[in-house]
Design a protein that fits this description.
about 110 residues; mainly alpha; Arc Repressor Mutant, subunit A; 3-stranded antiparallel sheet; 3 strands
Length: about 110
Amino acid sequence: MEVLSPKKKEIRQLKQRLLYALLTLSPPLTQENELPPQHEWLSTRQLAEYINEGVYRARNLLLEMVANGDAIVSHGSVKNSLRWYPVATEQQRMVAARRKNGARTF
């Protein structure tokens, strides 16, 4: 079992909270199973506010998540903001939806 420093634990928790926010707040895929338009994706500020962190810290964490394959970033800024979308399996989306609706998962 990997022992993490308090700082690494904090970063891991923040990334988990960001992923949860992305999974629960992002618009769904289109009926054709395609990504929604980038202007509908969540902005850095929206995500930063959701996890109660600064915009620059959230942006850095999100960029790490992109590098790890957990999120996608818009090709350029949309209304002066980068936009983010989750990369998730259908199972992860279902679990997040259940949690959002108050159901317990085991």
